[in-house]
Amino acid sequence: MGADLQKNTTKGKISAFCEKKEALKLMGGKKQTKKQHDSNKLTARERLAILFDEGTFQEVQLFVQHRSSLFDLDKKEIPSDGVITGFGKVNGRTVFAAAQDFTSSGGSLGEMHAKKIWKVMDMAIAAQKPFIALNDSGGARIQEGVPALDGYGGIFYRNTIGSGYIPQITAIMGPTAGGAVYSPALADWVFMVKGSSYMYITGPDVIKAIIGEEVTHDELGGAVAHATKSGVCHFVTENDTDCIEKIKNLLSYLPDSCHSLLPLVDCTDSAERSCPELDDVIPDKAARTYDMKKIIKAVADNGEVFELHELWAQNMIVALIHIMGKPVGVIANNSRFTAGALDVNASDKASRFIRFCDAFNIPLLTFADVPGYMPGTNQEWNGIIRHGAKLLHAYAEATVPKITVVTRKDYGGAYIGMCSKQLGADYVMAWPTAEIAVMGAEGACNIIYRSEIAAAADPEAKRAELIAAYEDKFNNPYFAASLGIIEEIIAPRDTRKRIVTLLDALKDKKEIRLPKKHNNIPL
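The chain above was modelled as a monomer; its predicted structure follows.
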């Protein structure tokens, strides 16, 4: 009796609260935590401790419990319903997060689990702050039935409402299957951990049963598979800690919302720095490749480049850099892969990045060296026309400052697609090595001078003569410059200096477009 009275005192109630709170924070308990660690995975709380500045994380709805009685769920306690939600500071900036905890009923998503995520997403959107999801879940809680599916629907809805309004980042840090994969797909950036994370619509067992195909979890939906084959994964990371540190690095380039100022980092580089190494980047022979990443690194503050989607569609490079402390989005052709030609995946990769940067007011810097669109039935039948049109749409739609630098080849429709002046570039510069034309010299001469070559006493000698003349006229930037199609021809060593000047001149750029509900991009 005395103990019962003790519980009803103020001190007793506070003591009981503290005990319950600490018990809930253990989530699945020591045994499940050990299993998590044995799988080379951290728990949700350990992940959040790395993400947030020490002592700043404020948990939201710790005491939420499921309310289902189906399949004896009323007899099962699921601490915090398998997900930890809240907000705190990441390098001094407020960020909202939801971290599924596999130690608590496999991190399965039920009605109340989802509503906790809804709440913190609603808070992030209202506060205009980034939202991060750390996914580690066995999927929908089957015992709860349709309410679990409704839970996913509410998450997808909020992903969509917040798209282009606040940055959304998802880290796949364990299993993610079935409907659970679509929230990551709707986010801006997806991180995965090698060896411990995977995502797919249907797992290996179902695939084997239905179509007889045998495949492992990792082959089907592991980090490397999605980073190299599907393009769903933007960043492959070595472990949980590496994953979270890379997320924090990405955040340093992003504003809090589309209405926030871009983050400014301390700049120890110089606006007047010359890049003499760029004078030797372009090979003398047009068929030879070179490292476009050297150019990006040379113009970036202190040579620091944060490349995204590095392992997919490698003929296209997208990256974030700082120029005088301010973030800039870079799009560049990579001649080391398929000569830098535009194909279905490269077009998608660049288009998505361009639209992200435009949504969050990040200026665009394009380095063009493109021989054209990739030919062949594979590309045509996979929709290169439609996918290539996405790139045209994304560049033309973007209203942020757009600067283009032509380093070498810039041919045909791909010349337009890589942010030409008429597609909306604010300023186009070219190196003396630039070749701006409808197509390469050999192909052009075979069309223009077909009859003349055929009638010549020595057709091959005549072809070579005409090709040399065409190259002399068009394999340089001067014809384009004479027509005002490009604004300026610059020495490669002056590229950074010119970019710094232009970004400063264009920093207050405003463009008003036709009033409408939204564009209809050819998806």
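The domain at 276-434+476-506 is CATH 3.90.226.10 (2-enoyl-CoA Hydratase; Chain A, domain 1).
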